[in-house]
Amino acid sequence: MPWIVGSPSSAIANVSNLREGERLEICVVSSGDLSADPERRLLIRSLAGVGHAVFTVDGGRGPVSWPGSATRVPSKVPARGGVLAAGVRRALPGSLQRSLYERRLAAAAGSPGVVYPASRRDLGVAIASQARAVARDPRWEPAHPKDLPTLAPADRRLGSDFPDLGHHWPEWTGSGETPSGRHAGRTIVMVHRASEATPARYLRSAMDRAGVSVIEVGTSLDWGTIPSDAEAVVVTESPLPAVRVAGRRRDIPVLYWVHHGEHHLAQNLRLAGRYGADAILLAHSWHLAHRFGVPVHRFPFGVPVELMSPETTPFDRRPLTVAMVGAGLDGSSERYARRASLARRLEGAFGDRAAMVQGVTPEELIGVYARSKVVINEGGDRHLPITMRVFEAIGAGAALLTDVLPGTEILFDEDTYSAPIDDVVEQVRSIAASDGTGAREATRRAWAQHTYDHRVDELVAIIDATTPTDPVPPLDSWSRILEPDVTTVAVIGADVGEPDLPDRAIVDVQRRPDAIIAEGVRGLDEALTSVRRMVYTTDRPTRDAVLARFPSASVSEMEGVHCIELVPGAGYRVDGDDD
């Protein structure tokens, strides 16, 4: 029989604003031993830390060190000891033993609101449980009837933990007209690292058109410099390093606009805490709403009206049959291997009527879309993003052929775009041969409901409905010092354990950690072969040894710790700390 053990309280204080009716019962299930999986332990701490009732079901033994309760299911079938039971186990085929074990795990999981399988191997167990929804990793195909990403967009319990203002739900009908100057007299602080290609650029322009007085902050939010008439601070996700925060916070709402899904989630959870977010604006991946302990509002990207016109080139006069714009089209990135494969097939089928473009300005990008009948949207396999491309392509009058992105069917009628990408060449031929009615209807709706001018109206409504909360106490030194995109950490020769890093996972060097904390050079060579991004040390000889191996690394110092970025500007980062 399964046996249940209690657990000590969470290492992360519950700082959420979840009300009783908004908490979910969440099960994390594993056919292995969760005690041996530091990243799943971090998931458990994170879910409990924002206020959900979390329990676990796994094949481990003994007491646990994570929040909530644990049901530990012996993997032996039958589980009892003795000669007879051992004989039965020897007689049972391994596949049958596994099946019986998985049934017991599924039964022990019961009927929670959401079940998280610890790995792809455990997905079948999660689906077999009586859970309302299963939190599938987007890389685990295909979707299934209990798929949380698929269910969440239309389910208020799963798609947002808080009663929001009704934006972007199935019954939502739009925000109406957007005359210039309609929000004159309002002052909003906008915090982000400026870039011509980020959506913050377009939101800022729309705020200007609406008459909002915008105070733009790039590298450091100093509360002491924020004027008294500022009504809110809006932080938008932007490349790292993260914006620093200093001074005593004012009693005004702080909103954080999140642009990425699963692969930036841990980073964004930490940044929401750093900025003291009172509400989250979630661009897509609405199944992640329950991961934040504050109100979550749907806040998609939009049509950048300054780059295009609602009077688009007629569908039958467009010179390009198909276009793709984005990174990795040349095959240089393993992450976008599927995208590159699609590009090669389309170029082979359509020749000079296919435009496969990367490394262009936003203005050039829109020019390509405006000349194309069909635009392909392939978002990679790490999350399920309703990308900027969706709005830009549709706003420019192109027909969209896209991966299945849950929530797109709410923003646009399903018959106005095509999904999923399957036999891409035949799909493009079929769409290009049509009269373009679906594309025209999607474009009409985009300009009527989904411009950044509409987003400003939604933003103002959310600000007016948001109550500032007490700031979250700062984390202890190590968690505060580590970069927010560092989730996995290996420790070499330092006295640092899980209690010192409650919001990170401490892993072995062999698991390619995001960072290492090192004191002394013993074992350092192996660690430097494996580490992805950062090294932290208080020891000068260790610092010098790292720099000898990585002479182009950049070094900063915080509270006596040398913070070494091995490849400056790599990933979702910019090199340097200037505006």
Account of the 3D structure:
This protein has 579 residues and is α/β, with parallel strands linked by helices. It folds into four domains: 3-135, 3-Layer(aba) Sandwich (Rossmann fold); 187-301 and 454-465, Rossmann fold (3-Layer(aba) Sandwich), CATH 3.40.50; 305-449, 3-Layer(aba) Sandwich (Rossmann fold), CATH 3.40.50.2000; 477-565, Rossmann fold (3-Layer(aba) Sandwich), CATH 3.40.50.150. The chain has 18 helices and 24 strands. It has a six-stranded mixed beta sheet, sandwiched between helices. Helix 7 (199-209) crosses helix 15. The protein starts with a strand and ends in a 14-residue tail after the last strand. The model is unreliable at 1-14 (pLDDT under 50).
